[in-house]
Amino acid sequence: MERKVSDQPQPLMRVRIDRWLWAARFFKTRSQAKIAVAGGKVHVNGARAKPSRDIRIDDHLRITRATEELDITVLAMTDERGPATIAQKLYSEHSESIDRRATLKAQRRMERAGLRMPRSKPGKRDRRHRMRLKAKIESD
User: Fold this and answer.
1) Architecture of the structural domain at 15-116
2) Considering the chain, what percentage of its residues have pLDDT values greater than 90?
3) What is the rounded CA–CA span in Å between residue 34 and residue 41?
4) What gap in Å lies between CA 34 and CA 37, rounded to an integer?
5) pLDDT tens digits, 14-72
6) Integer distance in angstroms from the first to the last C-alpha of the chain?
């Protein structure tokens, strides 16, 4: 019995999550991806995943890296790391995730400049303190 060898590679239907995260350039090394998945930093369809878990197209991933939290949908499969332009075509990030990351980035930038965003509307005590401070500045 002769075996036919195809010139074209077969499309991948499933790939290990740690390998896909590395190929999609979320982590620099595959071992970093494996550690992140094992540490609970990656959730697939709302459930915590193991490094050996296979992911499929249309799976929803939540990836936590340092202070960032990314919500993405898997669009394509690969287990080989390639250029960043190709890696960006493997997934799409949800608009809420993009907005949340932009807000956190702006907040961190302001905090580095010395400005802190209040967590809530100022209370009566805070307003009185600001009025006294303003009056003191104007009188000087």
Assistant:
1) Roll (3.10)
2) 63
3) 10
4) 5
5) 899 999 999 999 999 999 999 999 999 999 999 999 999 999 999 999 999 988 899 99
6) 98
- Residue 101: phi and psi, rounded to 5, are -65, -40
Would you list the domain boundaries of the chain? Answer: 15-116
CB 92 within 8 A of CB 75: yes
Taking Cα atoms as reference points, which of 76, 92, 71, 95 lies closest to residue 23? 76
What tokens were used for 51? 């490094």
Rounded distance between C-alpha atoms, residue 81 and residue 129, angstroms = 57
Residue with tokens 């936590």: 64
In the chain, the amino acid numbered 138 is E
